[in-house]
Write a structure and sequence with these properties.
Blueprint lengths: L24 H6 L4 H17 L6 H26 L7 H19 L3 H25 L4 H24 L13 H8 L2 E4 L2 E4 L1 H18 L1 H11 L1 H6 L4 H27 L10 H11 L11 H20 L7 H25 L2
Antiparallel strand pairs: 1-2
Amino acid sequence: MTATAPAPAPSPDTKTDERLLKASPLKKLMGRPELGSVVGAIAVFVFFTVTADSFLQATSLATVLYAASTLGIMAVPVALLMIGGEFDLSAGVMVTTSALISSMFSYQMTANVWVGVLVSLLVTLAIGVFNGVMLTRTDPPSFIITLGTFLMLTGMNLGFTKLISGTVSTKSIADMEGFTSAKDVFASTITIGGVDFKITILWWLGLIAVATWILLRTRVGNWIFAVGGGEDAARAVGVPVAATKIGLYMGVAFGAWISGQHLLFSYDVVQSGEGVGNELIYIIAAVIGGCLITGGYGSAVGAAVGALIFGMVSKGIVFAEWNPDWFKFFLGVMLLLATLLNHWVRKRAEATK
């Protein structure tokens, strides 16, 4: 009698198991969330290249990049927050709050401006923690929570500035110790090939790289997508939902701190009423870049491209010598076209799977 060898386990059918199928480069490209915004950016670039004679000049492109960077520094962390399924309507005012804290603390305490800058960083991050904790510990949606923060910061910016300075703007700190070195970090200019580039462009590129690495190469990135895709499901598989959302709000606060310091050290005074309304522009840039309002989908690169489109349109109108009163109209058109284009691209990507 001979023993019968057990039948080998069936091997996966590489032709039917979709987990083992290799996607073509075209399918991978169609599946990228930033594809629609890249197509839109190319269209806007070509449009202003044809209609504005000075658009392609090196100095003009440097101006476009500067405009895009000041917006993109905030649009990138706002995009990560949206991928996590939340909004922050206090982001625009938080920029001004950060600048006011640095300026008034340094001036009133007659301290080195770097002390004010560090105090501003701690307070701004605390505002981000406040938004995150309020969201995760209570029932109201992020829209209501951050709308409350927006109103509180708007009132505090005006109230404290008038109480301490007697006017709606801060005192100049240009002659204080540490101002020159702080300006080098946050508001200096780098000359390359005879063309001046603002240092905010480097801050912007750095944030894009870090945010992309977090999203695509770390466990935290998986948590962000999971939380935005379905909070209950993410919690069920062990994702620290509360910590992830608090961290995302702290990321927005960090972007606001960088933008606020650039605002302060560019002009050495700050107007207390600045920043109102910018939060919507950050969100629009993220949406143009492919982020879903419902969360769970998007990229940092897409938000950066959305900011670049804003920069090209805002400065392209000037280079084309058009009436800037139409700027908001162009923004509305871009938002609608980008949303429709992104929707069409996702449908095409799903159809090719």
